């Protein structure tokens, strides 16, 4: 009944739009997104210009706020009032949930014409299509979360050579750094950051299959297993290496600690790279990028996508132009170079990217082939928001000392069960 | 109150020929002009409340769904540890916030009422926080309270190295930093209400008491403060509704952290309704919140409106 | 109204007592000013100095660049427009919303005090209770209503929302104010044959100055600072200033230019600050006459 309601009003709104729009014959797309910071907003401007060349006006509807929390609230109100934007930036299961409401547009014809099925990583496609297999979204980038960033000078000082292979070696290194008088881990205590580190530890501790069972499939037995307890123990261990003021710190301030040489490493997704580059540091020379120790070979991904909403026929053409422009290799390269991520298509030449990004692109392609590409829980690709946030609650509470590891395992099982 | 109006003494209008229709219209006019406001309120407030109550008994997730499933969401709600944390925090935050704002507001009002030179400068300074949005003043407070860069850091830089103030990073104490920032925002407003109350007291009564030999402290305690009862009640209502609605402040200052130590019902409700796509549970928490508000406001309104009747 | 009295003297007016009195008042002034000072100080520092230095230290290198940036250069969306264009949107929304809610509130207050009817207290109680509704719950149903009316995402839609949820307060203010207004004046005017609106216009309104100030301050600040409604019910071309400010300060990735944020915050607050400072003198007087009366 609700869907009917929505579509009725969508129809009414279309009628009104036709009436108003007849004066200006120009095509428009209205885009709801949360990219308002300098670099990425400027990168999006590339898309805007590209569309303008094709005669499509970009109507900008930015609403900032951590991973689109505010933007999703706005979207609810826009869709309910029958005034949906043309395209909306969205992540993971949010896309699936909106697709189930029957308010998104079908891009299948365009996708088959442009052969999206063959160029977009398979694990990602699941989130760009609805339950009937129709393309409904155009992925802009692929981020990966299981990275470790380190200050090269500190690493040299304590004698770290080459990549750190596993957890035990990581702890050795962190101990040495602590002795040398640095903060070993630059840490931002916000739920999503806690979860970003947590999922890397899950992957490192239990391996790829364990990660999938625990944080993609939410298998109850896996969640309650001894391995999960070990994961929480390791989180407790990491707590020894953070400074006392970690709570509430923004991720980029934590990155700044590594850049300034106050702290040695940060566990964070590849968007952290942009901060290093902006501080004129060179990958390999001034800072180190490597996978979270023990997770080499697997990639936890997160991808920004533009979901297309049902709009009137008059806007349909512009909408398709937008989708096509988003998927064009030129835009993918231009955008991802700025954003720190890698293109959402595997057929883009890596030449224009920096060393870390090239590493990332190669690993993404490999992980895609070996089926070791998993959705990041911390960024909405592991579970719907209810479950995701239930896990955040437990992880954050445990990291802040509210739970022992045993209690945390039990709380995790309970929280997931109650949220599903 | 001596609201005199010079215009009242002038003949306003020439007497007019009155018809039955006109008189009838004049009788009904007041109700007719009140009607739109009332209708709008009935729809947009009470209609929406009913909608929310119904929503709380459905299985709504991302968007509303209209299947009736009974009271299960309330059971679920009170099973959630987060909700209990939010309620406990509201009790701590709400009571401290209201009490401190009232005490501080009254104190400042009494002090400002002492023939202070520069009152015109001080009053806007006390009042201005109310004018600012918490989206960024919250950030200023967050910085100031952060031991790494704020007060703590400054004291150390000035040589007072044993100084420590890290409440905002402390799970047990973080809720009190929310109180500090909230008091900062609204105590000036409460001060203005009390100041207005003080200025409105009939000087005759004070003079009479002074003649009876009451000292200034006694005068305040026995006569003046009790006479501020309406101001206290107004302040209480304004503060109570702000305590219950507090959202921006917590988001900007601690975002519910460390951990979930500063979660409040308003942040809980927003997060379940919109961020977590558990709209039905969010609605249930909203209904509980509304009942809490009603339990405070309705008795107040009742007593206020009925004492007025008696007068 | 000019006979505002000062309270009884505390501390017997000795020099020492007065000194303490002023000291206490100044300490509190510092407490209230501190966040504003922090914001202002850091809005004229280069970013490096903020990152590395002391929050309360005065800037070593003064710069007005953050202010320029916040006003017209900062990225608040795809285009680097600064906050400038959003001020217009906010004013287009705030001015009608404040005016309409005030006029309705005044008329409601007038009717509820001077033309009392059976059940008027209940009507007033119901209107007043609307002040306490948490805004989050009205979002979805409001969106439906706005969609039905065809004003979703428009300035009139935003005005409607703010008028509706401001009515409780404006009615409260005017009702309490008019309750103290001598009803005999109204009655005698009626005897003279003056009609409903004429009495309102000629008798009540001219003496409503103080309460109009209170209402303007209250409504203007609340509507100007509102984020939730502004974000949810606006379109790409009607986003108010708070949404732009939020876009400026809370983008989750990328460099956080705190100096620009603080400059933007102060800029965004300027209209409300001006309203407070200009009309602040009348504020207490207005409260005295209206809001604190039972």
Automatic annotation (TrEMBL), chain A:
Cellular component terms (Gene Ontology): periplasmic space
Coiled coil: none
Keyword annotations of the record: Periplasm, Signal, Sugar transport, Transport
Location(s) in or outside the cell: Periplasm
Residues in the signal sequence: 1-25
Xref: Pfam families: SBP_bac_1
Entry annotated with the keyword Lipid metabolism: no
UniProt entry tagged with the keyword Nucleus: no
Main location per the UniProt record: periplasm
Family stated for the protein in its record: Belongs to the bacterial solute-binding protein 1 family.
Biological role stated in the UniProt entry: Part of a binding-protein-dependent transport system for a sugar.
Descriptive protein name: Probable sugar-binding periplasmic protein
TrEMBL record, chain B:
InterPro entries tied to this protein: ABC_transporter_permease, MetI-like, MetI-like_sf
One Pfam family per UniProt: BPD_transp_1
Membrane topology: Multi-pass membrane protein
Gene3D superfamilies the record matches: MetI-like
Subcellular location: Cell membrane
Transport in keyword set: yes
GO CC annotations on file: plasma membrane
Biological process per Gene Ontology, one example term: transmembrane transport
UniProt-listed CDD domains: TM_PBP2
Signal peptide (residue range): none
Domain called ABC transmembrane type-1: residue spans: 87-302
Positions of transmembrane segments: 32-55, 90-113, 125-145, 173-198, 219-244, 279-302
Alphabetically ordered keywords of this record: Cell membrane, Membrane, Transmembrane, Transmembrane helix, Transport
PANTHER family documented for this protein: ABC TRANSPORTER PERMEASE PROTEIN (PTHR30193:SF42)
Family: Belongs to the binding-protein-dependent transport system permease family.
Name this protein carries in UniProt: Glucose/mannose transport system permease protein
UniProtKB/TrEMBL annotation, chain C:
SUPFAM superfamilies given in the database record: MetI-like
Topology in membrane: Multi-pass membrane protein
Domain of life: Bacteria
Compartments where found: Cell membrane
Keyword Metal-binding: no
CDD domains: TM_PBP2 (cd06261)
Keywords in alphabetical order: Membrane, Transmembrane, Transmembrane helix, Transport
Domain ABC transmembrane type-1: 87-279
Membership in a protein family: Belongs to the binding-protein-dependent transport system permease family.
Protein name: Glucose/mannose transport system permease protein
Originating species: Afifella marina DSM 2698
């Amino acid at each position: 009944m609700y869907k009917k309601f929505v579509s009725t009003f969508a129809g009414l709104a279309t009628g009104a739009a036709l009436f108003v729009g007849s004066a200006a014959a120009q095509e428009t797309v209205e885009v709801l997104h949360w990219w308002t910071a300098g670099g990425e907003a400027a990168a999006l401007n590339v898309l805007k210009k590209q569309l303008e060349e094709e005669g499509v006006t970009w109507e900008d509807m930015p609403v900032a706020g951590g991973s689109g929390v505010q933007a999703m609230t706005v979207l609810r109100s826009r869709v309910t009032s029958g005034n949906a934007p043309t395209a909306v930036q969205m992540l993971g299961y949010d896309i699936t949930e909106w697709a189930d409401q029957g308010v998104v547009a079908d891009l299948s014809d365009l996708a088959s014409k442009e052969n999206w099925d063959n160029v977009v990583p398979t694990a990602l496609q699941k989130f760009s299509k609805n339950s009937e297999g129709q393309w409904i979204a155009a992925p802009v980038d692929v981020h990966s979360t299981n990275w470790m960033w380190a200050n090269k000078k500190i690493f040299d000082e304590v004698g770290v050579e080459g990549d750190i292979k596993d957890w035990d070696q990581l702890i050795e290194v962190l101990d040495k750094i602590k002795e040398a008088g640095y903060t070993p881990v630059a840490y931002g205590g916000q739920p999503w950051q806690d979860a970003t580190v947590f999922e890397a530890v899950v992957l490192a501790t239990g391996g790829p299959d364990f990660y999938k069972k625990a944080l993609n499939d939410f298998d109850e037995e896996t969640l309650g297993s001894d391995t999960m307890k070990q994961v929480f123990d390791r989180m407790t261990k990491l707590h020894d290496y953070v400074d006392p003021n970690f709570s509430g710190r923004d991720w980029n301030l934590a990155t700044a600690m590594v850049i300034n040489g106050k702290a040695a490493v940060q566990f964070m997704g590849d968007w952290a790279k942009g901060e290093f580059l902006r501080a004129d540091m060179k990958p390999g020379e001034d800072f180190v990028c490597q996978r979270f120790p023990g997770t080499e070979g697997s990639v936890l991904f997160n991808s920004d996508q533009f979901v297309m909403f049902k709009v009137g026929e008059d806007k349909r053409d512009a909408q398709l132009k937008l989708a096509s422009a988003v998927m064009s290799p030129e835009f993918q390269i231009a955008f991802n170079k700025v954003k720190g991520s890698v293109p959402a298509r595997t057929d883009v030449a890596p030449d224009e990217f920096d060393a870390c990004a090239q590493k990332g692109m190669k690993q993404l392609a490999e992980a895609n082939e070996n089926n070791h590409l998993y959705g990041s829980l911390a960024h909405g690709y592991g579970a719907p928001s209810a479950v995701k946030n239930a896990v955040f609650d437990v992880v954050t509470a445990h990291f802040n000392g509210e739970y022992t590891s045993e209690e945390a395992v039990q709380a995790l099982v309970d929280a997931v069960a109650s949220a599903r | 109150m001596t609201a005199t109006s010079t215009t009242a003494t002038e003949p306003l209008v020439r007497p007019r020929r009155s018809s039955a229709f006109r008189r009838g219209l004049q009788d009904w006019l007041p109700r007719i002009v009140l009607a739109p406001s009332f209708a709008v309120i009935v729809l947009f407030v009470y209609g929406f409340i009913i909608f929310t109550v119904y929503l709380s008994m459905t299985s709504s997730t991302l968007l509303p769904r209209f299947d009736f499933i009974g009271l299960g969401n309330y059971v679920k709600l009170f099973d959630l540890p987060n909700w209990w944390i939010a309620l406990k925090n509201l009790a701590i935050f709400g009571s401290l916030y209201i009490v401190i704002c009232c005490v501080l507001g009254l104190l400042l009002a009494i002090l400002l009422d002492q023939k202070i030179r520069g009152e015109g400068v001080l009053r806007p300074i006390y009042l201005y926080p109310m004018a600012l949005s918490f989206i960024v003043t919250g950030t200023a407070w967050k910085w100031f309270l952060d031991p790494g860069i704020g007060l703590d850091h400054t004291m150390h830089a000035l040589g007072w190295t044993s100084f420590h103030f890290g409440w905002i990073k402390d799970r047990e104490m973080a809720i009190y930093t929310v109180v500090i920032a909230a008091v900062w925002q609204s105590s000036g407003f409460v001060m203005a209400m009390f100041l207005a109350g003080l200025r409105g007291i009939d000087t005759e009564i004070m003079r009479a008491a002074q003649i009876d030999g009451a000292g200034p402290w006694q005068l305040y305690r026995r006569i003046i403060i009790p006479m501020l009862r309406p101001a206290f009640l107004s302040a209480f209502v304004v503060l109570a509704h702000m305590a219950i609605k507090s959202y921006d402040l917590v988001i900007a200052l601690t975002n519910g952290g460390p951990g979930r130590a500063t979660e409040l019902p308003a942040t809980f409700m927003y997060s379940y309704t919109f961020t977590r796509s558990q709209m039905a549970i969010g609605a249930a928490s909203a209904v509980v919140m509304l009942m809490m508000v009603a339990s405070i406001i309705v008795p107040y309104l009742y007593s206020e409106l009925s004492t007025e009747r008696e007068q | 109204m000019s006979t505002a009295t000062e309270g009884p003297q505390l501390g017997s007016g000795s020099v020492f007592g007065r000194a303490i009195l002023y000291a206490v008042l100044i300490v509190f002034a510092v407490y209230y000013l501190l966040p504003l000072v922090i914001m202002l100080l850091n809005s004229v520092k280069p970013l490096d100095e903020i990152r590395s230095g002391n929050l309360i230290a005065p800037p070593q290198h003064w710069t007005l660049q953050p202010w320029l940036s916040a006003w017209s250069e900062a990225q608040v969306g795809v285009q680097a427009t600064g906050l400038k264009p959003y001020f217009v949107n906010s004013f287009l929304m705030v001015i009608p919303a404040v005016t309409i809610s005030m006029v309705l509130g005044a008329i409601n207050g007038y009717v509820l005090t001077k033309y009392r009817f059976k059940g008027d207290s209940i009507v007033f109680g119901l209107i007043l209770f609307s002040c306490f509704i948490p805004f989050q719950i009205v979002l979805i149903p409001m969106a439906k209503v706005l969609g039905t009316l065809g004003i979703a995402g428009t300035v009139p839609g935003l005005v409607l929302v703010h008028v509706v949820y401001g009515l409780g307060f404006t009615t409260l203010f005017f009702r309490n104010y008019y309750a103290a207004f001598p009803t005999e004046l109204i009655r005698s005017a009626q005897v003279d044959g003056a009609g409903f609106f004429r009495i309102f216009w000629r008798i009540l309104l001219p003496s409503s100055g103080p309460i109009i100030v209170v209402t303007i301050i209250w409504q203007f600040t609340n509507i100007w600072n509102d984020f939730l409604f502004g974000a949810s019910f606006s379109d790409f071309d009607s986003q108010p200033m708070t949404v732009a400010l939020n876009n400026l300060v809370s983008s989750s990735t990328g460099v956080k230019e705190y100096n620009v944020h603080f400059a933007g915050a102060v800029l965004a607050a300027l209209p409300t600050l001006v309203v407070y400072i200009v009309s602040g003198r009348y504020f207490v007087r207005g409260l005295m006459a209206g809001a604190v009366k039972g």
